Amino acid sequence: MSFFNGVSGIKMRIVVTALILLSNLQPAAATTISLDKTIDTLDRTLAYQGEIYDIRDIGAYSLGETVNITVNATDVESFQLSLLDKNKNFLWNHMVYYTDGMAEAVMPGGAVTVPGTYVFAVFYQGDILAVKPVVISKYNLSVIPSSTIVPAGGTLHVKVRVSPDTSLPVRVVLVKNSSSLESSANRTQDGIYETDINIPESAYSRFSLYAAIASDNIILGYPELIGISGEGTINVTELSPQAPTAAGYILPAVAFLFLTGVIFLVLRKIRS
Questions:
Q1: 35 shares its domain with 85
Q2: For the whole model, what pTM was predicted?
Q3: 217 Cβ partners below 8 Å, 6+ apart?
């Protein structure tokens, strides 16, 4: 488990999977894709073909679930919204004509039949203007933290419910912007996994919490995510300065009285 490690293993898998899909990528800062269910991930600035791209969250859906999509595109009036798999195959397409800057679309749950990591992309004249990675989950995962408020330097206990049960590793991730904590959860009973996350004293902030499962399929050296939970929020509070104890007051007082007594005896001896 590591903190401020630049990018955790799970987020790196997401980033790598997204990069597989982004050939012929041309950025447009004015075009964005928003989904109705997302998970905050590590904020990453990606350099690709001389351009810079940001990935700050990913979609998180169950297999067969409908996806609601909003595209903000102020630079173009018409475009194609598509979902691509890791092999750059087009699984779903939606054409938008003469938009006034915002367009909404609904991808039916049947568009994806295999769980894994995919990417939505906005195409315009052969270029990709915006992307949004999305995980379509085979498993239903839910995270149950022992508390939503944890002091910095403390320990957060997390329970994960997984259905159906799996023999694959279950990871728990606590993330804030470009910082993260990641831990493996141990199976304690059927469908239940648990882990403890030790919070550094310097980590006070508001964090996002989720769990994820990766498959045995390797994509450019990294396992592909096939399960992801919804997102929870953990508030890590700053340590309060400790108030002085009774002993802290008594010891200085005793020392002062002792010193005063010594001075009195010395002065008395001098006068005599």
A1: yes
A2: 0.75
A3: 116, 223, 224
